[in-house]
């Protein structure tokens, strides 16, 4: 597995993963993220296939938002989601952010377990957050730099490595 920044030729693979993962989707939002905030759009590849992606950006002076994280069916339960989450949290830390926020469907217990394992806690519930009426759980994590890159430094391409070198801490800390 390799982690790298999104490239325009990844667009079709991202759309395929998004359509199999989410019931709501807008293909143009990914191009907009790439154009506005390319550093916050990271993909995981296995061989020459995009296996997953994460998109995050700064929303407040000290807070980043994870807009989306998805892993393609067939690549799930292999640690790819965890590595993508670590990568975006590391990016947030390296840019000086103190908190990370995300929204997750109440029914998505698998994702909630992943987020809890990375230090996210439930803050509140937004009733009928999603267009189908399902509630969204808002979760936040406090980021404690330096963020641990030890477990996946070898997975990152030179572009990310050169930009976000960090020290090593306990793997379970943010």
UniProtKB/TrEMBL annotation:
Domain of life: Archaea
Transmembrane segments: none
PANTHER family: N-TERMINAL ACETYLTRANSFERASE, N-TERMINAL AMINO-ACID N(ALPHA)-ACETYLTRANSFERASE NATA
Protein's name in the database: Ribosomal-protein-alanine acetyltransferase
Pfam families in alphabetical order: Acetyltransf_1
Organism lineage: Archaea, Methanobacteriati, Methanobacteriota, Stenosarchaea group, Methanomicrobia
InterPro entries, A to Z: AcTrfase_RimI/Ard1, Acyl_CoA_acyltransferase, Ard1-like, GNAT_dom
Keyword check for Transferase: yes
Family matches, as NCBIfam families: rimI
Keywords per UniProt: Acyltransferase, Transferase
GO cellular component terms given for this protein: NatA complex
Every N-acetyltransferase domain range: 1-144
Coiled-coil residue windows: none
Recorded GO MF terms: protein-N-terminal amino-acid acetyltransferase activity
Organism of derivation: Methanohalobium evestigatum (strain ATCC BAA-1072 / DSM 3721 / NBRC 107634 / OCM 161 / Z-7303)
């Amino acid at each position: 597995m390799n982690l790298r920044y999104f490239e325009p030729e990844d667009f079709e693979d991202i759309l395929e993963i998004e359509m199999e993962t989410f019931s709501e989707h807008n293909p143009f939002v990914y191009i907009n993220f790439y154009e506005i905030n390319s550093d916050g759009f990271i993909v995981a590849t296995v061989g020459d296939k995009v296996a997953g992606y994460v998109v995050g950006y700064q929303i407040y002076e000290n807070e980043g938002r994870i807009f989306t994280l998805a892993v393609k069916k067939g690549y799930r339960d292999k640690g790819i989601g965890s590595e993508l989450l670590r990568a975006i949290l590391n990016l947030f830390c390296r840019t000086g952010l103190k908190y990370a926020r995300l929204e997750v469907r109440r029914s998505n217990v698998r994702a909630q377990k992943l987020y809890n394992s990375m230090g996210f806690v439930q803050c509140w519930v937004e009733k009928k957050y999603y267009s189908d009426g399902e509630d969204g759980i808002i979760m936040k994590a406090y980021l404690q730099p330096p963020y641990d890159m030890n477990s996946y430094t070898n997975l990152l391409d030179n572009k990310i490595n050169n930009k976000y070198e960090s020290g090593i801490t306990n793997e379970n800390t943010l």
